[in-house]
Amino acid sequence: MTADPTPQAPVRRGPGASTSLGLLLLRLVVGVVFIAHGVQKVWINGIPATQEGFAGMGVPMPEVAAIVVAALEIGGGALLILGLGTRIVGALLTVNMAVALVLVHIAGGFFASDGGYEFVLTLGVASLALAFTGPGLFAIDAAFRRRRS
Predict the structure, then answer these.
(1) Which residue ranges run through the membrane (predicted)?
(2) Most C-beta atoms within 10 A of its C-beta, which of 37, 44, 117, 148?
(3) Among 136, 101, 141, which residue's Cα sits nearest to residue 26?
(4) What is the pLDDT along the chain (149 residues), one digit of tens a residue?
(5) Residue 5 lies in a domain
(6) Is 89 domain-assigned?
(7) Number of domains making up the chain
(8) Residue 16, domain member (yes or no)
(9) pTM (2 decimals)?
(10) Which of 93, 91, 87 is nearest to 145 (CA)?
């Protein structure tokens, strides 16, 4: 019996460098956008105005929701940038954007300029993609995985 002359492809564990660079760029941009919107809710508009705005949009428990959403956007955005807890944070931010889409933006149609859902859809799907893929190699999550191996 002769050996198979065709070389076997190496088995890769996780994304390569170019995919990881793409995920890093995605995490950075999505994280910065979420942080900016959280900062807007807390320090630009202020929590009381955000709570009032949420109430006017029909968000349930606006007093609590405004604080939770602002904290999620600031904290979650920072965690995405670092690549820490990426899958969980991505899932939480996806839910956040899905709620915003259903409660606030769907009635405005597609275009954000008309109050529509294109922006929250984009952020939600980007967050979902990070929840599915993870952060890539250039992340704290990946450093923890390498250390455990």
Answers:
(1) 21-44, 64-84, 91-113, 119-144
(2) 117
(3) 136
(4) 556 566 665 655 678 999 999 999 999 999 999 999 999 999 999 999 999 999 999 999 999 999 999 999 999 999 999 999 999 999 999 999 999 999 999 999 999 999 999 999 999 999 999 999 999 999 999 998 878 87
(5) no
(6) yes
(7) 1
(8) no
(9) 0.89
(10) 87
Residue 138's closest CA among 19, 27, 20? Answer: 20
Q: What whole-number distance in Å separates Cα of residue 138 and Cα of residue 70? A: 26
Q: Return left, alpha or beta for 61; rule: phi > 0 is left, psi -120 to 50 is alpha, else beta.
A: left
In a domain, 33, yes or no: yes
CA angle at residue 24 from 17 to 92, to 5 degrees? 130
Residue for token pair 């899958």: 87
Task: Tell me which DSSP letter residue 3 carries.
Answer: P
| Half-sphere exposure (Cβ direction) of 4: Cα atoms closer than 13 Å | 3
